[in-house]
Write a structure and sequence with these properties.
Number of strands: 7
Shape: globular
CATH superfamily: P-loop containing nucleotide triphosphate hydrolases
CATH topology: Rossmann fold
Number of domains: 1
CATH class: Alpha Beta
Largest sheet: 7 strands, mixed
Order of helices and strands: EEHEEHEHEHEH
Helix content: 25-40%
Length: 203
Amino acid sequence: MKLNYNKAEYFASYGKFSQLPPAERIEIAFAGHSNVGKSTLINKLFNRKNLARVSSVPGKTATINFYSLENLFFVDLPGYGYAKVAKSEKERWSGLIEGYLSSDRDIRLVFMLVDMRHAPTKDDVQMINYLIDTEMPFVLVLTKSDKLNKTERAKRLEAFKTEIPCFEDIHVIPFSSQTFEGVEELREIVEDIADDNDVTVDE
């Protein structure tokens, strides 16, 4: 099933988990460290420049942002791990992310983003362990893949085997907003989920 990605629209933002309306659709979430490129990935996925606002300031996404396409919601979770934020704000973000992921919403998949150039952060590993422990379906998206040459890339992929829990059992997609690497594979996964839900799509 081919979705018309150009029809994706911003739906709403929520600063507290308690503000979220009841779940009405299946949801696909995006999680990752601050400045890992979630907004950029969402824009590339939907072939839009500014659907998700890209900020040069890490930690800018302090809300859960919902985007609507057909019968799907795409949910951009706050970036975690940004140091220059008050403790109370970090706790609010943590509550948002944990509240959302542990809720009874129909979350079909989490795209878990990690910067391919570096070892995962402690927060990344904690999030991946959480997804594994709760048996939440997820795909690991390695962002900024174009920043590495072939040798550097091979080294990072080898290193991830020891840095990321169960790395060799995880579906991994290298992604680049510059070369579009990974975009079609991500869309195929989204469309498989839409197919499973019998989404009605305009011809």
